[in-house]
Specification:
Blueprint (H helix, E strand, L loop, with lengths): L2 H14 L6 H11 L7 H9 L1 H11 L1 H16 L7 H22 L1 H5 L5 H21 L11 H11 L9 H11 L4 H29 L4 H26 L6 H18 L7
């Protein structure tokens, strides 16, 4: 992989990781357009590892919140009188909501990095999940804020996060949609999506790091892609939080559907191959 290719992939990752448009789907399409072998384990690992840059952006953006929650969690862990603190409970919510994707990701690794990398799956998931996003917005009441989150909410949203292992669904699209179906307001659902992304993407990135380092990719490309991802993702996080405060996530649906249809046409006409 050339450095300029790593830069392009870092930009794509940074822009799409937290928008409900599927970062994995976009990275797969971009890799295909760049002529990279999308079924190569090293390329798949690169796609996962540069997500660490996006997660670093979330850690940096929410640093004060994360520090406060972490302190409250450890304090409540050892002293019972602090366990009524909402931040202590929220720490457990994030942990519980992150367990499902860890289990499913490990059990389905072969499927996720193999057949599901097909652009036919990407195109289909982009279109099908768009319908779910529309339904979620229409059914949502937006009646509940962050202080009203429960363990049940985060476990259910964590289960929905597992669907994001299918390229084209979108991790943020799955979690925000389920948050809306749980009657959370958009900002609360989006913030929770960010916090659930931290353990999920960090674990995935570290798990795939040896594969990326031992593969055909140079360390320089990996570092460049990750750094670019961090810079672009930070701007994306700030923008998305402001956007969802005033706009529906259905705004992203039209882009998803058009992209999915264009991909299907290109695949059906043989302009690009599925893998």
């Amino acid at each position: 992989m050339e450095i300029w290719e790593a830069v392009i992939l870092g930009i794509v990752e940074g822009i799409t990781e937290f928008l409900p448009v599927s970062s994995t789907g976009h990275l797969t399409v971009t890799e295909k357009l760049l002529g990279l072998p999308v079924d190569d384990p090293a390329i798949t690992a690169f796609t996962v590892v540069i997500q660490i840059g996006a997660i670093a952006a979330v850690l940096f953006y929410f640093w004060s919140d994360i520090a406060r929650i972490t302190v409250a969690w450890f304090r409540g862990l050892f002293r019972r009188e602090y366990r009524d603190d909402y931040d202590y409970r929220f720490g457990w919510y994030v942990i519980a909501g992150s367990i499902p994707i860890g289990i499913v990701g490990l059990l389905g690794e072969g499927l996720i990095t193999g057949p599901l990398r097909s652009l036919w799956f990407v195109a289909g998931a982009l279109i099908v999940w768009s319908g779910v996003m529309i339904f979620a917005e229409r059914a949502a009441t937006h009646q509940r804020g962050e202080k009203e989150l429960t363990l049940t909410d985060t476990v259910i949203i964590g289960l929905a996060q597992c669907l994001a292992l299918i390229p084209g669904v979108s991790r943020s699209g799955a979690t925000i949609s389920m948050g809306l179906l749980r009657d959370l307001d958009r900002v609360t659902a989006t913030r929770l999506s960010f916090f659930l992304s931290i353990p999920a993407l960090t674990a995935a990135g570290l798990y795939q790091l040896p594969e990326a380092l031992n593969g055909s990719l140079e360390l320089t490309s990996l570092i460049v892609g990750t750094v670019v991802s961090f810079i672009v993702a930070y701007a994306s996080v700030a923008w998305l939080l402001k956007f969802v405060a005033r706009h529906s996530i259905v705004t992203f649906v039209w882009y998803r559907v058009i992209l999915g249809l264009v991909l299907m046409v290109l695949l059906a006409t043989g302009v690009i191959s599925a893998t």
